[in-house]
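Bump. Still looking for 23S rRNA (guanosine-2'-O-)-methyltransferase RlmB structure tokens.
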Amino acid sequence: MSQLETVYGIHAVEALLRFHPRRVKQLWIAEGRREPRVEALLELAAGQRLAVETKPRALLDELAEGVHQGVVAQVSPSQVWGEAMLEELLDRAEGPPLLLVLDGVTDPHNLGACLRSADAAGALAVIVPKDKSATLTAVVRKVACGAAEVLPLVAVTNLARTLEKLQKRGLWIVGTAGEATQEIYDVDMSGPTVVVMGAEGKGMRRLTREHCDHLARLPMAGSVSSLNVSVATGVCLFEAVRQRRASAPS
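Sorry for the wait, here they are.
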């Protein structure tokens, strides 16, 4: 049991049952929880011939680190991909690839939210440094609402070197910085693009910044000076989506 991971929340467990059912070893449902979304999970589990046990909610509270919605699973360890995965993803990409880089985002809630936005925007993968960065946890999976099960999270040893390799493959690196002179809406992201978001509060590291082809900022009209990194990530990614749709042949 110690080698298994705990995944909780309806969306996260549903994604596992749909895309990685063999990883699910045990599935527990809180006593008395029989709403339609839970019934749908039970149908998925039955289709995979996975036994489901009913447990007191108090026991599930002990197993989960947050709001579990009455659904907790024990699963085999997840895989954080290495750099070689990027080459494979880019080789089979259809259309101009879109990648998200998180340079030192350590809050698991922010990582989960960024994964969710990246998946919704059609990104190929999310890239993080191996050190000083959040990684896949039960909290990340819960916040990601299933995106963590389908979108590759790639951990690299040297982020600057990875950016160099992506540039050599023809991708443009767009970093975000509050002091940038141009706005994100002025940067062409209709082609192969890597969007780089800095750490909470500190922003991008110097070497990361030096490897960016463009630096851009989000216009701030109110009294606050910046957005939460996960919110800013969503804005930037969907600006890329907007541009791609506008440039696509009708």
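The radius of gyration is 20 Å.

Edit: fixed formatting.
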